[in-house]
Every structure is written in C-alpha cells, then in structure tokens.
Design goal:
The chain is an all-alpha fold. The chain contains seven helices and no strands. It is globular.
Length: 131
C-alpha cells in the first residue's frame, strides 16, 4: 500500500513539473543576476508553500464560507485561465509568457504564480488536506 505522504509528493511533483518550470523561468534566468534570481526563487517557493498549507488546512472552508463559491467552479475558472494563456501562446508566440510576468520588482510573485500556485496545485492541496 502506498503511503499517503508518498502519494501527495507524487501528486505535487507531477503538477509542479520541474521541466515546465525551467522552460517558464529560462527568460528570468537569462535576464537576472544569479543572486537576485536565487532570492526570488526562494521567496516564490515560500509563497507557494504558505498557500499550499493554507489550502490544505482549510481549503474547503475557504471556498464555501469565505469566497462563497463551489470548489468545482474554481476548477472550471482555472481551466479557462489556462485556456486563455494557451490560446495567446499559440497565436502570439513565446513573448506571451514574458508579458504575463509583470514588473521585475515583483519577481517572487512572478515565479510563484501562475504555474506554482495554479488551479491544479490548489486543488491538489485541498484534496490532500481532505484526505
């Protein structure tokens, strides 16, 4: 029988996909100093960790009581966001990812969202918290 911790690790590892993250961050790596990029990467990872723990601990309550939305509606909305990103990427090219990043002073948030903290990973955190 597979340990629940191993199952959760495999789920998050597949959703966070280090290969996709490296492609997403290649522009940041090229255009940033190593020290600045490493600091932003650690800060972005901490932001993602805090969000994952928050949603694992009380994700169902956050959706139902505070946001007043059903969890399924959040998943549909997240899918639509990624559909729009994919559509723009196909028709506008690779520059789309650079446009989504925003200002350089918000580098940690740029690393954390939308790929580390997205609808799939938040859903996984909620499901992991329920288990």
């Amino acid at each position: 029988m597979v340990s629940p911790y191993l199952h959760s690790f495999a789920l998050f590892f597949s959703l966070l996909n280090p290969f996709l993250m490296s492609i997403y961050m290649i522009g940041l790596i090229r255009h940033s100093e190593t020290k600045v990029f490493n600091k932003a990467l650690i800060q972005g990872s901490l932001i993602a960790y805090i969000v994952f723990m928050l949603f694992a601990w009380g994700g169902e309550a956050i959706f139902s009581k505070y946001l007043n939305v059903r969890f399924e509606a959040f998943q549909i909305f997240g899918g639509l966001i990624f559909l729009v990103i994919g559509y723009r990427y196909v028709f506008q090219g690779a520059d789309t990812i650079g446009e989504m990043r925003g200002a350089p002073e918000h580098l940690a948030g740029t690393i954390a969202m939308p790929f580390m903290i997205g609808p799939g990973t938040i859903s996984a955190a909620v499901v992991t918290g329920i288990e």
